[in-house]
Protein 1
Amino acid sequence: MVTNTAAPRSRAALALAISVLAVVAASVIGGLASATSAQDYARLEQPSWAPPSWVFGPVWTVLYGLMALAAWLVWRTGPSEQTRRALTLYAVQLVLNAAWTPLFFGLGWRGVAFAELTVLLVVLVATVALFWRRSVVAGALLVPYLLWSTFALALNFAVWQLNN
């Protein structure tokens, strides 16, 4: 008996492509909302521990790659209610992720951005937990994003307070 493995491989490749496109869309939306965010960031009063603006691009590139891989690994665990729930929460946190830059830089609503980032962190913690249940590797791949987002929350709060 000969089995056709091309169809599952092509579905897996399509799922990986969709996962990558989702994080690219989130980053593009954020980037389009404030094309001058590096200059805006430099003009803000910042705490002494704030990183330089050039750090954000490389960090987010790595984080988005890890996020895409994690979502793909969860998708590969197979169709189930738990997989759908995990990927739905993942999609929600991606939308929240994309919304932060327009709030913080585009509109200058640093307090609203802080509240939004707080909600993002709650959703992200739940996403990490659900991903971990589906795939330990997928859950672990989101931990750097969770840590960076926690740092970003503290930085957002400090910048908000210093520029209020």
Protein 2
Amino acid sequence: MDIKKTGLILSGGGARAAYQVGVLKAIHKILPKGHYNPFDVISGTSAGAINGVALASYAENYRIGIRHLERIWMHFSCDQIYRTDFWGVSGSLSRLVRSLVIGRRYKNDPVSLLDNLPLRNLLREVIKFDNIQSAIDNGALHAIAVNCSGLESGESVSFFQGHYSINNWQRQRRVGLRSRITLDHLMASSAIPMIFPAVKIHREFFADGAVRQLAPLSPALHLGAEKIMVIGVSGYAHERKERQPSKSYPSPAKVMGHMLNAAFLDSMETDVERLRRINRTVSKIPEAVRKKEGMELKHIELLEINPSQSIDDIAGQHAHEIPRALKLALGGSGNASHNGSGVLSYLLFSHGFCKALIDLGYNDAMRRSDEIKAFFADHFEGHTE
């Protein structure tokens, strides 16, 4: 049986990405003991890029990598991601306000709501970037992509490290550039605009990869994936919500949450819908006709796993875990989860919230164990130890 290269797509979403860890933990449980890394290609954006690179660095010891990733998220606290002390938050906030009102005094002075230096220090300690090339050289991994958004060019840039056969690519406002993945790529990919500072890579500043990411599935396909698993972070994906009457003017937290949802969730849902539509079209056209007409369209097997519950609502249940200084910066409650748009769910890197999302992801995936086994069937015939 031909083994198709399997791609893993990990979307962004700040603290919401803890859900992905739960799904990956379940996959580790479902697949046969002794199995090798099931993901040939990994494409991550924002916090999903952090999960993806962590997995890639353990591609030669996949099972250990899953445990390592879970251990990191289970012991998260907000102060490991950004400064939560009063002076740290107030200093960042004052610089942000000053730059908006009177301009910037220093050109290279970062402007953001929060200082995420603690995250940089944490990632430097827990991710072994040198292991990625070793995994590629030994065939345990085909490629890894970290997606960023260029603030000058306006392009979605996929920095990738992979097999020598993979070439750079360029599409409308989308490019793929071979690079050795570093800490700067991760910090740039997770730099939520105005919340975390942008990062300069080579000649340009880059921010969160979810911004202007028109085709989140595309990088994995360019890197050679022939079927893809998508682990999203949008509760009730593809379901239309009822319009609720507005009782008051939207709070800053609600407006910010709406903008984050637009950046992190909408493009992924749209691209998945597009792929399903293409697959339906391809199924109606005989292969002989496609070859005769030179049609490059082909069926891409897709398995999508999304939260079965509203992550905003779960964040609301853990609102008491938000640091006091951040609560003040967000205008009091810092939470708009009760009306369906919570910025809190992106910033609440607390033990209780992360554990709840890991458990949700694990249970959601375990309920779909038959689908997961079927999706990986070709990978594991004759590959168990």
Protein 3
Amino acid sequence: MVDLSKRRLFSRSRIDKSALCLPWLAKPELFTDLCTRCGKCADTCETHIIKKGDGGFPSVDFNIDECTFCYRCAEACPEALFLPQTENPWQAKAAISDGCLATQNVECRSCGDSCETMAITFKLAIGQVAQPTIKLDECNGCGACVSVCPTSSINVSNLKKMEDNNVT
């Protein structure tokens, strides 16, 4: 992993707005300016998905587990970085890539089984196994589907980033 924190010293470039940060961030574009990197959010995360990322800033790793939206990260933060818990935590949604076993005609429904909101469903298809589809309006971006995928074919990212990449 490359530490770009020193490179940013002179460029003052801001964090990528489409990158997935912590839930309920009030101003993601100011995250690197306001976060003190104290690690309290990671220490209190009940599923331990908040890890120190590039430059020591906290980031979410869905390969470990899911976000339960417990709000502990926001409560533990000494800075005023977070929106109230009543707000939408983020505009993150899941996307399934072509590496999915079902697209290769291998039966697998682990992502759908782990999706509590039932946003991932499987549509029967003639001559092949049922194909996964994601109902984006029902997906809350919790990431429960990511760690259970045997081929790492599911990614959770901001909806804006997905639209920029034409992912549906």
